[in-house]
Amino acid sequence: MRKGVMRPGHVQLRVLNIQDALAHYRDLLGLIEVETDALGRVYLKGWTEVDKFSVVLRESDTPGMDFMAFKVLNEATLDRLHQDLLGYGVAVEDIPAGELNGCGRRLRFVAPTGHQFELFAEKEQPGRYGVGNHNPEAWPRDLTGMKAQRFDHCLLYGDDLDGTFALFKDVLGFDLCEQVLTPDGERVAQFLTVSMKSHDVAFIKHAEKNKFHHASFFLETWEDVLRAGDLISMTDTAIDIGPTRHGITHGQTIYFFDPSGNRNEVFCGGDSFYPDHAPITWDADKLGKAIFYHDRQLNERFLTALT
């Protein structure tokens, strides 16, 4: 049952050097640089996103993800979810409005996998970059790089998938879209959605808590994904795998790394999901085909390169 969580709102990533990261996320991925705040954090967005930002980069000694946030319907929904989280036994930190530029108050909590998540209801909405909301053109003419349209989802690695699924399902109203099960029924991968997308966040079983696998950005067409592969080679960017197709979600994809070692994905396509759909199940011994449909096997780097 949906509880008023609408969609992914933003992700804050740790990077080792802000200028190197900007060359990657702005110039190569094609995100729009919005501003830099007093703490040195840089805000970016995809050109189709109406909110002020969806990616925040913070310079740090270690790479990885600080937190991922979801936008909820309104302030009343945020208040209700605050009480629901507390009633479920989850500690909640109240982050005041303005701590992130242009964003209202946020509720921060830690999932059983060890990852930090946030909920918020308000964020400035300047509209789609370069085209606006009134008689818009098809696309802005000054886009660069891969021309990423939006921040789409994260894949995260952690230990307690069952506890995290229960929290996201029972309190936040997410649905299970796809899963990978071992022969004895243990869920080792889960793809959760709160929209019509094939997933808004996903988790894979891992012995350590709070590991970041990738942040994903949506492109419009398979030709755009292939062009992204060309740009990765042109810029000598470290590549993981692709272009190829997923079995899970059926999206077309390519994986690569930012200069700090954080993995990114750009993809197009993917299945649609409705709340009356039963979860799609993959057997664990078919995981290679589930993740990389063409090669039908996982490379070691995909499983072990985490931040």
UniProtKB/TrEMBL annotation:
Q: What is its EC number?
A: 1.13.11.2
Q: Does the keyword Cell membrane apply?
A: no
Provide the alphabetized UniProt keywords: Aromatic hydrocarbons catabolism, Dioxygenase, Iron, Metal-binding, Oxidoreductase, Repeat
**Ranges for the VOC domain?**
7-122, 150-269
PROSITE patterns in the record: EXTRADIOL_DIOXYGENAS (PS00082), VOC (PS51819)
Listed cofactors: Fe(2+)
Indicate whether Oxidoreductase appears among the record's keywords: yes
Which InterPro entries is this protein grouped with? Catechol_2-3_dOase, Glyas_Bleomycin-R_OHBP_Dase, Glyas_Fos-R_dOase_dom, VOC_core, Xdiol_ring_cleave_dOase_1/2, XylE-like_N
Tell me the protein's name: Metapyrocatechase
Q: Which organism is it from?
A: Zobellella aerophila
